[in-house]
Write a structure and sequence with these properties.
The structure holds 2 protein chains of 2 kinds. Chain A is an alpha+beta fold. Chain A contains 10 helices and 7 strands. By secondary structure, chain B is of the alpha/beta class. Classes of the chains: A alpha+beta, B alpha/beta.
């Protein structure tokens, strides 16, 4: 029993005995009334406490729980029988005690007035405890549900934040800022161009990344802007070649696909003047292929295609019946991305 | 005079850093700009400057790879990186500072002052100290508590 609940039952017992005192004041002297109500107080308090513990003992039992969880009527059945049994038991107890303490006072039979009077009184106390406990329990449940909901909400916010942060690509952003600050003092015109392309990339990221698919033409525009930025950074260490069938420009792929594949190629391969990274983007029947010479960095993990490629595959699973293929063939890394025909 | 090497895979960034260093402190002499782990390993195996400005992500690998291949680098290291995900790993090396790109003049000035202050003293070899002290302390102590003994 919690401290608050203990105090609550204490107070209720006190109020009951106070009512008893006030009632008795009509017939008895004040001292007699007080004296008698001390017993009332003790009895009420003991009864409520015992009923409380019995109740929690019964309803926390795992077998009982299974039984009540089965059907709602089971719960009511159990409640009613528990309340009646307890009332009967305590009424009998009161009668037994009464017979021992003052045998001359009343008739203690099951049909007698005293028995049914005490039965009603005990029933009132039991009902009172049950109603109060049921109320408190439902309140606690509500609070628990509210806490659970807010936890779920929190998790959602965190995952959304991580997704957004990922979308922002901080490593790329700060690297670009650094290049820009260098360009400003070295080549002003190039700096302006760089800033323009950087804005294009981020604008595209913001406006198109929520869409399910975008035309290949748009994706190629982004790839070109992105490559201008990387070309300033890597100069002759990176080369790109586009071979696109103009009739396929209106076909669709998920947004940021080409950018992701170029970024991946840069991330996982050596990009130096002596070993330049050569990227090719070309259409082949119903696919667009991003190909690069495979020269793995010593710090890139073998056989891991990374979260980006896995994500792309997941996206395709949802929207198309053919999946992209990633493979290493003849010292080349190939990403074969199926083109989706616009439905109209 | 302090000798320095810049290891950075983006040449405009390296040029800018060189310019900034020379503007702040003329006595720092930049010997070479290196752009890959391979180049750096070849260079540092023969010659070690007083200080290395080291970009973490290089065009052929992670720059920590340099320390694996040339284990006896005694130069002081100032790390430069665009995004701070390796700060703790960086401090395992002889690093004296960690500069975030784009590098500001104030931060670079602060690092160079720190460098000058430290170039007269040597950085203690914590690894060695750790190994030396490791076996010299007691592993267990016998303590008297009231009337009972406990380890």
């Amino acid at each position: 029993m919690g401290k608050n609940r203990f105090l609550f039952y204490f107070l209720i017992s006190f109020l009951v005995s106070l009512v008893d005192v006030l009632r008795d004041l009509g017939q008895e002297s004040f001292l007699d009334a007080i004296d008698y109500s001390a017993y009332t107080f003790l009895a009420t308090f003991l009864a409520t406490t015992i009923i409380y513990y019995l109740r929690s003992w019964i309803f926390k039992n795992s077998k009982v729980k299974k039984f009540t969880d089965l059907k709602k009527s089971n719960k009511w059945l159990l409640y009613i029988s528990a309340i009646l049994t307890k009332s009967m038991f305590f009424a009998l107890l009161v009668n037994v005690i009464g017979r021992i303490v003052s045998p001359q006072y009343s008739s203690y039979s099951l049909t007698g007035l005293f028995f049914w009077g005490s039965f009603i009184a005990v029933l009132c106390i039991v009902l009172f405890v049950y109603v109060i406990e049921a109320f408190l329990e439902s309140e606690a449940q509500k609070r628990e549900i509210a806490i659970k909901l807010s936890n779920i909400e929190n998790e959602k916010i965190i995952s959304k934040y991580l997704a957004l942060k990922n979308q922002l690509n901080p490593h790329f952003l700060f690297n670009s800022f650094n290049s820009l600050s260098a360009l400003i003092s070295i080549d002003k015109e190039k700096a302006e161009d760089f800033l323009q392309k950087l804005s294009d990339v981020y604008r595209y990221n913001l406006t198109h990344s929520e869409e399910i698919v975008v035309p290949l033409e748009k994706e190629l525009e982004l790839a070109r802007s992105y490559m201008v930025l990387q070309k300033i950074r890597f100069k002759e260490a990176i080369e790109i070649d586009y071979r696109i069938d103009p009739f396929k420009l209106n076909q669709l792929i998920p947004p940021m696909t080409l950018e992701l594949l170029i970024e991946n190629a840069i991330k996982h391969n050596i990009v130096t003047k002596n070993n330049p990274l050569k990227i090719k983007i070309y259409t082949l029947e119903a696919d667009v292929v991003v190909e690069n010479n495979y020269q793995s960095r010593t710090d890139s993990k073998p056989d891991s295609f990374g979260i980006g490629l896995k994500n792309l595959e997941k996206q395709y699973r949802l929207i198309h019946n053919i999946l992209p293929v990633f493979e290493v063939k003849d010292d080349k890394f190939l990403a074969v991305i199926p083109l989706i025909k616009p439905s109209i | 005079m302090i000798t320095a090497v810049i290891i950075e895979d983006e040449d405009i960034a390296a040029i800018r850093l060189q310019k900034m260093i020379q503007e702040i402190n003329e006595s720092i002499h930049i010997l070479k700009i290196l752009s890959s782990v391979k180049e750096s390993v070849e260079y540092l195996s023969n010659k070690q400057p007083d200080v290395i400005f080291l970009d973490i992500n290089l065009s052929d690998s992670n720059s920590f790879e340099i320390f694996n291949q040339v284990p006896n680098i005694s130069s002081k290291i100032i790390f430069t990186t665009a995004y701070s995900e390796y700060a703790i790993k960086a401090f395992e090396q002889n690093s004296i500072d960690y500069l975030l790109k784009p590098i500001s003049k104030e931060n670079l000035t602060r690092s160079l002052q720190k460098l000058e202050r430290l170039s007269n003293e040597t950085i203690p070899d914590y690894q060695k100290i750790f190994h030396d002290t490791e076996s010299s302390y007691k592993k267990r102590f016998l303590v008297k508590m009231n009337n009972s003994l406990s380890c």
